[in-house]
């Protein structure tokens, strides 16, 4: 039987998701920390003619007490303490057979811990990643579910109904146990960070290296959105760059302070990559770029002290477009490598083709490339590396030369391109059988007698002539 649904947290995302649930014909109980938001939501639902199956409650406890069992309560509240407290409270209020669903951007380590805790109290726990911003939540987000198969079957009809559809199939699935859904959402956000940063680096070169106006650059992005780069982020970049500030008449982008916020998912992606002995260098570059951006005053001083200049670059439109395609493929590849490492570590048995499929609509990184990525994971993929799949190796061979020209021009022109440069170094590294860490191993042996493996006979624990 389908559980009775409750939703706690009527902020932007929670309200949008609640309307979506009602719109799909499901009965819904709602509550919020402050009663005002609940009242405002009730009015909104009434105005949208969606209130007939809505029941409002004054608090989380009231909702939990007054809902008939079995209950499934979705938490749409800020990650961290608020989620922790709500789970504590619900564990005292709910009964075996009931489910708690955390639908926020939660660190998957917390989800793993909470799954054990909540299930230890006889209840069911689901960690659910939801992507697509407010628009997605209202009209169909991409949904990444972590929990037991039983927990999934209890909510599946609702989740599939409210999710985005790609060719009529829901962009939602059960991806694995405990933290799997939240981790896949975290890596989605990491890729989102990298893609946004790479787009932004190319904007910077066109703007400050080629003197193009934001609107003209925006028009380029708009035209790219019809081809191989078709994606939500390219589409909205075109719109942002072509928008005008109504107060000043300037390009909208020119009145925005150049300090980027971040709520944590990009950083968590990296922390986990490093914990697993991996690197997702383009995501790391994107997180670093946001952190550096927050030091506005240092940069203002630095422009003078370091005599910063941005010189002209000469590149054609196709160079930028191809560079973005190559770098985007690499960012996705790094994201999937990390998913693969985590799947091994936490025994999640993630289905990478399926993940690519549920990212094809509803979420922020939706792009035409994801269709090819899911096909690649279902097809021949040497060594499990996306960049080795024939379709991608071929695309990279056609587009990496442009990425190389862009990175070279940026370096010579003094344009910071941390994400593009790291993407290029990644592909150049994996295109060489003989790397450079022979020297690193030699250095380690020299100063610490750490030993190395000989290339000729495979013997380990060897030392160099500096110890003879
Ligand atoms: C999504 C977004 C969403 C949110 C991020 C933004 O998939 O819908 O990723 O989850 O906008 O939290 O993250 P930052 O605030 O860290 O940029």
The spatial strand order of the largest sheet comes to 3-2-1-4-5-6-7-10
CATH topology of the largest domain: N-(1-d-carboxylethyl)-l-norvaline Dehydrogenase, domain 2
* Overall body shape: globular
Strand content: 5-15%
How many domains?
3
Q: Spell the H/E element sequence.
A: EHEHEHEHEHEHEHEEEHHHHHHHHHHHH
Distance between the ends: 75 Å
CATH class of the largest domain: Mainly Alpha
**Mean pLDDT reading:** 97
Q: In terms of per-residue confidence, which ranges show pLDDT below 50 for 5 or more consecutive residues?
A: none
Q: How much helicity do the residues have?
A: 55-70%
CATH superfamily label of the largest domain: N-(1-d-carboxylethyl)-l-norvaline Dehydrogenase, domain 2
EC number: 1.1.1.44
Function: Catalyzes the oxidative decarboxylation of 6-phosphogluconate to ribulose 5-phosphate and CO(2), with concomitant reduction of NADP to NADPH.
Active site: 185 (proton acceptor), 192 (proton donor)
Pathway: Carbohydrate degradation; pentose phosphate pathway; D-ribulose 5-phosphate from D-glucose 6-phosphate (oxidative stage): step 3/3
């Amino acid at each position: 039987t389908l559980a009775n649904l409750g939703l706690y947290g009527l902020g932007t995302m929670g309200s949008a998701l609640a309307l979506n649930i009602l719109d799909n014909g499901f009965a819904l109980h709602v509550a919020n920390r402050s009663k005002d938001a609940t009242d405002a939501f009730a009015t909104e639902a009434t105005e949208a003619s969606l209130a007939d199956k809505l029941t409002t409650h004054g608090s989380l406890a009231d909702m939990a007490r007054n809902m008939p069992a079995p209950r499934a309560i979705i938490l749409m509240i800020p990650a961290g303490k608020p989620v922790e407290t709500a789970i504590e409270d619900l564990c005292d209020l709910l009964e075996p057979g009931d489910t708690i669903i955390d639908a926020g951007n939660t660190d998957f380590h917390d989800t793993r811990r909470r799954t054990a805790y909540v299930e230890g109290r006889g209840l069911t726990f689901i960690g659910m990643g939801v992507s697509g911003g407010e628009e997605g939540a209202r009209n169909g987000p991409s949904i990444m579910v972590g929990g037991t198969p039983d927990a999934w079957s209890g909510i599946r009809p609702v989740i599939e109904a409210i999710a985005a559809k790609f060719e009529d199939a829901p962009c939602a699935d059960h991806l694995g146990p405990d933290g799997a859904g939240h981790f896949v959402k975290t890596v989605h956000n990491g890729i989102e960070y990298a893609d946004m940063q790479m787009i932004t680096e190319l904007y910077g070169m066109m703007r400050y290296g080629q003197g193009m106006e934001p609107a003209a650059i925006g028009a380029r992005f708009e035209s790219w959105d019809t081809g191989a780069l078709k994606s939500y982020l390219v589409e909205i970049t075109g719109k942002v760059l072509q928008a005008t500030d109504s107060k000043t008449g300037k390009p909208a982008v020119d009145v925005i302070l150049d300090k980027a916020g971040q709520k944590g998912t990009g950083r968590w992606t990296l922390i986990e990559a490093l914990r697993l002995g991996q690197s997702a260098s383009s995501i790391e570059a994107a997180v670093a770029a946001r952190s550096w951006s927050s030091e506005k005053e240092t940069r203002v001083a630095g422009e003078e002290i370091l005599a910063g200049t941005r010189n002209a670059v000469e590149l054609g439109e196709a160079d930028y477009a191809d560079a973005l395609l190559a770098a985007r493929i690499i960012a996705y590849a790094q994201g999937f490598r990390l998913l693969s490492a985590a799947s091994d570590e936490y025994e999640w048995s993630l289905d990478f083709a399926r993940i690519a499929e549920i990212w094809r609509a509803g979420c922020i990184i939706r792009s035409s490339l994801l269709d090819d990525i899911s096909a690649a994971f279902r097809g021949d993929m040497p060594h499990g590396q996306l960049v080795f799949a024939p379709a991608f190796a071929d695309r990279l061979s056609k587009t990496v030369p442009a990425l190389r020209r862009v990175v070279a021009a940026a370096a010579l022109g003094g344009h910071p391109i941390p994400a593009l440069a790291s993407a290029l170094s990644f592909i150049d590294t994996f295109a060489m059988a003989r790397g450079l860490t022979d020297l690193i191993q030699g250095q380690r042996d020299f100063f610490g007698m750490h030993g190395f493996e000989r290339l000729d006979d495979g013997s380990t624990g060897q030392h160099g002539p500096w110890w003879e």
